[in-house]
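Researcher: I'm comparing several assemblies side by side, and this is the next one on my list. It has 542 residues spread over two chains. Same procedure as the others: predict the full complex and return the structure.
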Amino acid sequence: MPTWVDGCTAESLPVSDRGLAYGDGLFETIGIRHAKPRLLQRHLARLGTGCARLGIPFDEALIQRELLAFAAEVGEGVAKLILTRGDGPRGYAAPQYARPRRILQSGPAPTYPGAHAEQGVRLFPCTTRLAEQPLLAGLKHLNRLEQVLARGEWQDSTYAEGLLRDTSGRVIEGVFSNLLLVKDGQLLSAELSRCGVAGVMRAELLAWAEQAGIPLRVRDLEYAELLEADEVLLCNSQYGVWPVRALHTRDWPVGPLTRKLQAIARDLLDC
Amino acid sequence: MPTWVDGCTAESLPVSDRGLAYGDGLFETIGIRHAKPRLLQRHLARLGTGCARLGIPFDEALIQRELLAFAAEVGEGVAKLILTRGDGPRGYAAPQYARPRRILQSGPAPTYPGAHAEQGVRLFPCTTRLAEQPLLAGLKHLNRLEQVLARGEWQDSTYAEGLLRDTSGRVIEGVFSNLLLVKDGQLLSAELSRCGVAGVMRAELLAWAEQAGIPLRVRDLEYAELLEADEVLLCNSQYGVWPVRALHTRDWPVGPLTRKLQAIARDLLDC
């Protein structure tokens, strides 16, 4: 499977890259199907937002061209794009004229047990809490130690994902997924203005729900609301939708809106 | 100036390194004088603490040996050691048997205007606030986007450093320094259990003050206490101590305890 750095085949990058030094960059994990990147416009839009907020120059045309060429070479699988601010001298101050570095890695599409999608998953209750940092909230940046620590909390493979709450106890997301609730026919998604990653599949599902006339609210979610929800589901751009079946002693059925959203996600990922 | 990766001369590292992917690692910036690393035991102790908290294997003897050999080659200047969790497959889960990667970069000793130490510096009041994350507080880890954003707030070189407060408004530190206050003869340092970096020079100065019988408290510091302090100073392991002369419209004199601490720091860095 190919690896490119700045458009050329390469397996390494300079030690002076600010992505390494400070996590000064962003990433996207993009499915490749039939030699095409899936949900490309959503991924580019999020990357562009992240670049604007971090002040990293964003050459969208170049990145799009490169992703299309990379996908053509990969064929089937997954591409991970890391965009860093590029090289810099010692010190936090960003160079006045940053030359962002593009790193493209590829791999086979992740495989998950079919039961995750069919019967639903158990959520591990992570004790790692997400810090509240509005300046970075929503972005898929390279400062991911919280996720590393949270993912390190469980080895038991009967947990497919972990639940992340913020330091105030609110329900935010999974370690590598977003979380949605259904209560009395309303779809609820956590506000991601203090922490969390605004996922590409979440954006797709919320856009679909809005268009389909499903009552929808994006707001702070208390833990009690999760426990009282009628349906709970996880989503991301690789696996689509997994129903959540259990957390601690709480059990949920796999509900009709979850199945509908799962079908929507499947359509999006198949096309 | 030399660059080593895992003990060998190299200018690059594999794109699969988790330091790049997630900022999954730690760093130390170590002065080199007369071919020896300065404050080596303090730097190693902090790195060891960081490794223990992040679950990264720490081969202290190997790292010490390498730092000594590197310092001998560098002669005079500064060494930056990055220790990452090493390579890993896609996904946040750390490999069961991580092989940490050691990256050593060198450069000339940073040069600052003599006036910073003699007359003191102006502090830029950063609006970037530090998020409160007890799991990472105190560590010099590679997730440093907050510092990048904060340092990007000012270009005016009449500000030598920026003041960082936490999201609750407490006074924490500088962007690349720790901050100490003097009030009624008492030395005050911010509690770093929710955010901040526990600096090597801070540790040295606090240890000296304790031994010298200077009244000392490490606790939460409100912003009003900074404004009402008799003396304010910054410290780090490269420049030692800078008096803080101004913040907004507040002016401070360069006080006697600041000068004493400055002399202590100078001794530590000269030896």
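Model: For your comparison table: Chain B touches chain A through 59 residues (CB under 8 Å).
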